[in-house]
Write a structure and sequence with these properties.
The chain has 294 residues and is of the alpha/beta class. The chain contains eight helices and 13 strands. About 4% of the residues have low confidence. It binds guanosine-5'-triphosphate (GTP), magnesium ion (MG) and zinc ion.
Length: 294
């Protein structure tokens, strides 16, 4: 009997494969499948044969739609970028960097500002929301502590494969625990279940949501260099630049001081947020330095 499913996790040479009806099979893999790029990964959609009860053998892996290296997960559709409004302080530069990285990997990015309950949470939250909404992103404001915004966050994750990414301490694991009670993910360095919690190890795991879909809790993108991004492509990853960029005098305008640059004019009129443009220029410099070093 052949079935189809998705790999939730790899455990010591076995793969836990979840079928659409919610059953999990512990599978081995055919030897030839080990030659697949990076091997079989969490998120891979596979065809497998059932050998006994809840055991099977993975026969075939379906083409991957996306592939993340760190953490290694296949078929991720969207990335929820989580930043705390306070503790640790929010870095808009890191957020903009992660937005560029997500877009360059063809992952749909979403933004979540967490810890809205903290008394000293940023006063400029309305401004932050305005900047990122104007840039075309979907933004959530949440508190894993009080439950604020959790329903909306859950709705955005249902039915899709998502990863949560962002700095350590932002509250990614806490948010997942709120969204799907019972998972007891390790939070703030202490396992809520036991000291030997599953998530003390570094392997990646897809967690299934009752509302459908899967989410991977990650320690964040550890690879933050804009390595594979070309200076020419960079502005395409700032969605709010597009409408203006078409009006620049030069078709090849990099929006970095060229005459009649409609993007920098829009910044001067405050139609593009100064912080976004500043980060664009910083990343542009980084990508150019990378290119020069080759
Ligand atoms: N006040 C407040 N504290 C929160 C909130 N969310 C998380 N925390 C606390 O922030 C700390 C870090 O939360 P985690 O969920 O472990 O953060 P993380 O993003 O998973 O961190 P890493 O796993 O290290 O990447 C813990 O002490 C949480 O209890 C929140 O909305 N409000
Ligand atoms: Mg965590
Ligand atoms: Zn320009």
């Amino acid at each position: 009997m052949f079935l189809q499913g998705i790999i939730l996790r790899a455990v010591g040479g076995f793969y836990d494969v979840r079928t659409a009806d919610g059953k999990t099979y512990r599978c081995r893999a055919r030897g030839r499948l080990k030659k697949v790029k990076m091997g079989l990964l969490a998120g891979d959609r596979v065809r497998f044969s059932v050998t006994a009860g809840a055991e099977g053998v993975v026969e075939e892996i379906y083409p991957r739609q996306t592939l993340l290296f760190r953490p290694p997960v296949a078929n991720v559709e969207q990335v929820m970028l989580v930043g705390a409004l306070q503790d640790p302080p929010l870095s808009l530069q890191l957020l903009d960097r992660l937005l560029v990285l997500a877009a360059s990997r063809r992952l749909h990015p979403l933004i979540c500002f967490n810890k809205a309950d903290l008394p000293h949470a940023r006063e400029d939250i309305a401004e932050l929301l305005a900047i990122y909404k104007a840039a075309g992103y979907t933004v959530f404001v949440t508190s894993a502590k009080t439950g604020l915004g959790i329903g909306e966050l859950r709705a955005a994750l249902c039915g899709r494969i998502s990863v949560l990414a962002g700095p350590s301490g932002a509250g990614k694991s806490s948010l997942i625990n709120r969204i799907q009670p019972g998972l007891s993910l390790k939070v703030g360095g202490i396992s809520e279940k036991s000291k030997r919690g599953r998530h003390t190890t570094r392997h990646v795991e897809l967690l299934s949501l009752d509302c459908g879909g899967f989410v991977a809790d990650t320690p964040g993108f550890s690879q933050l260099e804009l390595l594979e991004i070309k200076s020419r492509e960079l502005s395409a990853y700032f969605p709010e630049f597009a409408a203006f960029a078409a009006q620049c005098r030069f078709h090849s305008c990099l929006h970095a001081g060229e005459p009649d640059c409609a993007v920098s004019e829009a910044v001067a009129r405050q139609e593009i947020a100064a912080s976004r443009y500043e980060h664009y220029l910083l990343f542009l410099q980084e990508t150019r330095e990378q290119e020069r070093s080759f």
